[in-house]
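Let's do one together. I've listed all components of the complex below, 492 residues spread over two lines.
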Amino acid sequence: MTRWKLILEWDGAPFMGWQRQDHGPSVQASVERAAFQMTGETVTAHAAGRTDAGVHALAMAVHIDLAKDVTEHRLREGLNALLRPDPVAVLRVERVADDWHARFSCIGRRYLYRIANRRAPLTLEAGKAWRIGPHLDVGAMREGASYLVGRHDFTTFRSVHCQSDSPVKTLDVLSVEREDEEIHIRAEARSFLHHQVRSMTGCLAMVGLGRWEPEDMRKALEAKDRAALGLNAPPDGLYFVEAVYP
Amino acid sequence: MTRWKLILEWDGAPFMGWQRQDHGPSVQASVERAAFQMTGETVTAHAAGRTDAGVHALAMAVHIDLAKDVTEHRLREGLNALLRPDPVAVLRVERVADDWHARFSCIGRRYLYRIANRRAPLTLEAGKAWRIGPHLDVGAMREGASYLVGRHDFTTFRSVHCQSDSPVKTLDVLSVEREDEEIHIRAEARSFLHHQVRSMTGCLAMVGLGRWEPEDMRKALEAKDRAALGLNAPPDGLYFVEAVYP
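Okay, and this is what the predicted structure of the assembly comes out as:
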């Protein structure tokens, strides 16, 4: 049995999310199906992060165990051929130790949230970013973001469906940068609560629009109450960027 | 009657190209339909460049004449609402002089061609770039490109359907840059022949793959013969970037 680390990219639009679902397509089911078609083996694919419906991945780390002896080249090319036409691609494959685990060995997760700050509807980037028409004040957003960095109880920014044991997380990075009409919000932590990045992004948008003062981010955090949330950003603009391992 | 300059962005995938066609959707027909729905006026939309099926536009200049008196804001928002769900967006509108013409006043056209130089199939960028698996030698491509810059007879790089009076054009810029896995080819000229950018790109890919020497670009140019063309690149990676006016 060989444990394989796969680095996957996907377009989240057609999927119910990473996790296998009875009621619709998932990235996990696509990967497990392709692995089965290639090897005849029923595998369980484990990912560093379980992304929601519509959320994209630029480089998600996943692992599967295979008894079949294949080369790295053959596994990558074979899975990619069998994953079609699903918009999932295997960027890289690597043999890892048997005790390496895509989820439990992961010590850092990086997300990117793309906002298209423009009046016109999206065409080429439809489904790939959150369009916000009015001009966003990036300086205010950056100030608002600063209140969230560090170790906090993120109950306000947590989905009611979150299964994490504790709402206390350490947010290492929450940056806001403008590149022309695009605003990039980058979030980095050992782990996140369910909907945390989208919830933080939604509130930062409220700050950028001037509906919230930057300090309202601190107040929302301190409320430790989901009802204090300003807005949950849509999945379209969210990208899982990288899983970090020791 | 007011002449309006419209700056349009579109995803070329669902269209037969800019020009109105009997046998399928076109960007021109979408724009003319939206203008009719908004004003009741039958207009003809003129574009700086008539792009092919599948070719995208980041900022195409177009003009239409309208008798109806509207504000810039109302025209842009109205057209954008009526263009949905077609992936065409009006980025900006501007009143121009009656003798200003999107096509005939244009003194420069800029195109971008995106190559995704990677083994894995495209997911998020599917239809938005030309994927080439083997590593491309950008230095060799740049050298090959240098032979095409200047005033030449571009017959080799011209579609048999090209309606231009002369195959002689002046190519001002043909640059090749790598950004990680992406290769960006930028072409700039007063005007281009039909399929010229895709034909030049296809041959540059041959050079990048090592199937052609850089000097083979010069030989292909000097042959002045369509049969000397190495390869015509697919439309997916081509973007009309900008139309330049005095």
